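sry for the spam today, last one i promise. struct tokens for design, 179 residues
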């Protein structure tokens, strides 16, 4: 059996999406998962799915039952990364709602006791982010979004990071631990 891989999911947040994908492309043995909103956001930022498919397997949210989640049960993945993660996705994960490819991946990773690393877009009361067109803008997450991020930090097998550097460090630490 081949050695396990990293599953990486992109949701509908553009929050440092270019930096996240730049990092993903430096890694080996990664499968990329895109939510429907994630696909839309990639287009808004000028990122072509075909370019990503040329570098790694890409799974899209096309089926009601999210068939790829079964790969967690076969030992195919050692880690699940969700970066960037929208406030909607984080809220669903906190409530145990698994009604999309990405929320199903998070749910199944947890059920299989597989480590998840999550980079939510809402981590502070005021955040600078990059909008499409490379324009810097300020975003002010709602208290409910910040509360969901805080709750997610207490979930077993879940590590929440608050910026791209912490994301990179967490992923590299996880890979080093597994090697």
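last one done:
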């Amino acid at each position: 059996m081949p050695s396990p891989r990293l599953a990486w999911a992109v949701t509908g947040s553009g929050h440092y999406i270019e930096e996240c994908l730049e990092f993903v492309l430096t890694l080996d043995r990664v499968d990329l998962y895109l939510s429907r909103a994630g696909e839309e956001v990639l287009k808004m930022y000028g990122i072509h799915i075909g370019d990503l498919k040329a570098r790694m397997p890409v799974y899209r949210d096309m089926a009601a039952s999210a068939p790829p989640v079964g790969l967690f049960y076969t030992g195919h993945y050692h880690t699940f990364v969700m970066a960037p993660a929208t406030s909607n996705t984080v809220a669903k994960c906190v409530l145990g709602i698994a009604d999309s490819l990405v929320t199903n991946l998070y749910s199944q990773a947890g059920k299989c006791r597989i480590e998840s690393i999550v980079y939510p877009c809402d981590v502070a009361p005021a955040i600078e982010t990059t909008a499409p067109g490379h324009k810097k803008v300020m975003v002010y997450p709602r208290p409910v979004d910040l509360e969901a991020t805080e709750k997610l930090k207490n979930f077993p097998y879940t590590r929440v990071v608050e910026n791209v550097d912490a994301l990179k460090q967490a992923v590299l630490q996880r890979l080093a631990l597994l090697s």
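The helical segments are 17-24, 36-44, 49-53, 87-95, 101-111, 143-152, 164-178. ok im logging off now
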